[in-house]
Write a structure and sequence with these properties.
Radius of gyration: 21 Å
Number of strands: 4
Oligomer: single chain
Largest sheet: 4 strands, antiparallel
Strand order of the largest sheet: 2-3-1-4
Shape: elongated
CATH class of one domain: Alpha Beta
CATH topology of one domain: Alpha-Beta Plaits
Number of helices: 4
Structural class: alpha+beta
Strand content: 15-25%
Order of helices and strands: HHEHEEHE
CATH architecture of one domain: 2-Layer Sandwich
Length: about 130
Amino acid sequence: PNAKTFNLPNTICIPHLGASTPESEVNCAIMAVNEIKEYLENGNIINSVNYPECNMGVSNTIGRIAINHKNIPNMVGQITSILAAAGVNIADMINKSKKDWAYTLLDLEVEVSSETLTALRNIEGVVKVRVVK
């Protein structure tokens, strides 16, 4: 908005919310860095285009794993069955989906063995299994 557009009849001027000023560019850069940091350190997804918002905060358990997978029936069942068979107790879990993709974040009371991670990775439809902590 400027002095001319503010006074146009039948017009409601609103500010542009994009990074159109040096200050907003800095703020957008800081926000992007914080979102990437949150993903790398905690597995949380914030403001993603392709994946759903998924935030469990900071883990207070021994382990946390993140699983990117197709949004298909029985995926969570397969994941939890493999963990249960390995004697891994799930302290907290969140599963979010966005169209064809889903993301599961699990806080675990023990570290997961490489064999269990391999079994999770071998589930049809799993794209990536990442040990966050």
